[in-house]
Design goal:
This protein is of the alpha+beta class. It folds into 4 domains: 393 residues, TIM Barrel, CATH 3.20.20; 139 residues, Sandwich (Jelly Rolls), CATH 2.60.120.260; 174 residues, Sandwich (Chondroitinase Ac, Chain A, domain 3); 83 residues, Macroglobulin (MG2) domain (Immunoglobulin-like, Sandwich). Helices cover 19% and strands 31% of the residues. Strands 20-9-6-5-4-25-24-21 form an 8-stranded parallel β-sheet. An 8-stranded antiparallel β-sheet has the order 28-29-30-31-34-35-44-41, covered by helices on one side. It has a 5-stranded antiparallel β-sheet with strand order 10-13-18-15-16. A hairpin with a 5-residue loop joins β28 and β29. The chain is globular and about 110 Å long.
Amino acid sequence: MSRHRSSVPALAAFLLMLALPALHAQPLGIVDGFPYTVDPSDTAASSFLPQLTDMPAGAEGFLQHDAAGNFRFADGHPVRFYGVTFQWSACFPDSVDAIVTAARLRKLGVNLVRLQYMDNAYDWGQQSTFLDRTSGFRSLHAGQMQRLDWFIHQLRQHGIYIYLILQSSRVPRASDGIGPGADSAMWLGMELNYLYPQARAVNKEVARLLLDHVNPYTGVAYREEPAIAMIELADQGSLISRYRQGQTEYRPADYGFSWRNSARLDTLHTRFLMEKYGSKEALAAAWQVSPPPGGFPDLLREGGFEGDFERAWNINAYDGVTVSKILMQGDSVPEGSLSLTLRVRNGGGNIYAAYMMQSVDLEFNTLYRLSFRAKCSNPGGRTLLISGSQDGGLGAGLYTTVGVTPYWKLQEVHFLVPVRSATPFTLAMWYGDVEGDLEIDDVQLHAVAGTGLRPVEMPEQAMVARIPWNSPANALVTSRRVEDQSEFYMTLESDYLQDMRSYVSDSIGARQLVTGAGHYWASGYMEAAIAGDFDFSTVTSGWDWVSGDAANWQVRNYSQLRNEWGGSISAMTMRAHRGQPYVGAFSQPYPNRYQAESMLMLPAYSLLQDWDGLIWDVYADDRFASPEKFIDTAIHLPFARNPLMISMMPAVAHIFRNGLLERARTTLNLRHSAAQALLLPRMESAWGYYAVPGQMNGRAMLVNRVVIDSTNAAYFTQRDDISFAPELEGEAQSDTREILWEYNRGVLSIDAPRVQGTSGYLTRAGGITLANVTVDLLSANETATVLWVPLDTSRRLEGAGRSLLVMASRTEPAGWHWLDSTHADAWGTGPMLLDPMRVRLIFRPHDSVNAVRITPLDSSGMPAGAPVTTLKKGTTITVLVDQKETRAVWYGVELLSDPATSVPDAHDRPVLLASPGVTSDRSYITVAPARPLDDARLELFDMLGRRVALLHAGRIGTGGETVRLDASGLPAGQYLVRLYGDGMLETARVTVVR
């Protein structure tokens, strides 16, 4: 039902694999929910919400990055982007909608908009593309460009930057010169970029059309527009990802390349091999591995049990199981004169309770064959588990079971060693689960040469087979063959992306930062190695999905916080490079219960990892969306009408943009050799997504920063090269001590000087205690989120001043009906309902604070009702917030050193007036606060954000202050006057003319 690529079944399977069932009972539906509507057209300024600076995007110059790999503007000012995505026709709003939308996003704290799927070439989709259907989508459409130009102009004026994707939905067409291959392309046809030169030529043509275009509202071509912060060449456009999914082969009964496109890839593959080696003979020689004279030696001792086998083998049992070792002799012995019978007694179901082991030296990236003959006395047979590992935990790539029959049978197991080791591995056979006799003989372990070029393969006829990613053949062929195929895919992808980058930056002259093919859930380390050569990297991920129809909706409801690994952060972090900016994008389709949890988790760990951008997919995907202010059945990802996500956004945007959480103090620098990417198709199951032999700890990124330090190191990082501080059972705490994830409880807590909050299953005796507040959930909410942030980022939460409190649980439309925890037969309609919470907050502020005032705010951020009653006792101040009564998610909080002082109502806000507002000589700035400001600053800034003058510093009483501004020496232009004081920020404009 969804229009979004992220809801494809493979993503569903991946996310379901990561997710674990909830640990706590989930009540079906919201009980006694209160209606809460967010209005996408609400732009009213609220002094109770965090504020963006009053400066147009691009005023500080083009986006750059420093040596540490963080974004900075040309003037040196650092920046983090908190963004949202617009898709399809939503990228082309009407003129009024563009103005309202830009102002709305600014109010929510958004400073970046990613434009996606606005370039399609489907004949039905003129409303969703800036290209003109009548020209075969090879020219700009005047009407659509007018809408896009105006939207970008409005975003720019409101201080919001643009993330521009050059190709995200333009499907190649037969009229592009590709021929029938275009008609058989998969979703959005990105793979044709790599197969056909004609596709590349059209992509360059479209890129020039867009980047050379001059926006009539700014007078600037897009290639020279600093408000366009960054460019992505091909959204989710990696050929290697298709290869990794097994889609680059022709499979008539499954999703994949057409026969024509698969054959085209075969031709390119063979051409690559012949250009590298020059002849079939040279190729065959390169792929061949010759055994030593006499063959590969047997690496095991006493595998025939003819001598002192007990010196070679450690045979033992525990947990009440006994094993008797009996040598058998007779004509039926398979090899030599003796075989070994292991008589098991008291087997209690634990296969590991009895074993035979031997140490053996094994080589990295070497294929081995373990063979033996065995039989058993059990009439139905029995299982033998075979493994290979070290004491340090590194595995030899061997962990499998074989079925032993009541008659002698030859057993063979092949395995590939995925780690380097200077110490021996232990080869073990486990058999302690059942009683009976296990007879074994002729145990041998030999290296195997592997298959090279087969006689039937003829390069001159483009008949050299490509091995699918998940094929067992990857382990059975020679290493060089796998490496050459990987090099082919990586070269094909890198050459295309680097050529496009050169064209965009050098030929067209675009001045923005550029990345190649954006990562997504199907990407792996091979793509990450390619992305490291670009200006920044970007990844799109998600959690859960929705499917079905009106009578049977299936909702995957899994909490990331109830997953014992790192949730989506675990998969997203693996693509970050040291010294390169990183932007993450995330989606969690409604009606997942746990959106508020993710809304807090993602920014927290993004800051721990020192990411430079965080984008939420998607704000809107249709400019023709219905006017109802609730989430309808066809819209899963867009959240403009989602009261839960919108209510979380101002606070979490404020946290991320201003870096209110500390970066991890320890960085795990992962070093990779050049060959590692080439070996990945045969090793990923043992290395994991991080390409770390022995696998990466799935909670490492919850504790330390994780980055790719090198893709061309002499020695690659293995698991035993990485050390961690001891973990407490069931929890992971960041090395900054600011973030605690209790994954067994399903709770995330953030305890920092400027951010305090908690999310998840919060029911516990005594509540959750943070530095300056204890959160005690008194209601039975299955998930709850409480977040507290200051409005003035220079102020710690413990001190006097104003702050924002957010309380959110989950949301549903009225009339939603659950069949069970993951199925519904009625979606419901408006209004949206929120699950009410009842929370006791116990504040412990600085000694100078003696009162707390908490004012409920409505969905526009304006006061809505009387302040909540507080009780002061000793050094603590207690407040009970019951959302059934307040019907609010936002609360304006002020810690007061004078109990008679209150949070100003909207009409009591400080007044800042410049008169005259347009001058060539002088202007007078009048400040009329509703209450005294003990430490006020009045400063003048130009539109590049540079401070021009300090106009006043010190106390301003309720009688006000008038300050003269001498404008006679100022260049013509617009200036901002800013008033700072006691957590307040007000601005006024002055225009100087000549």
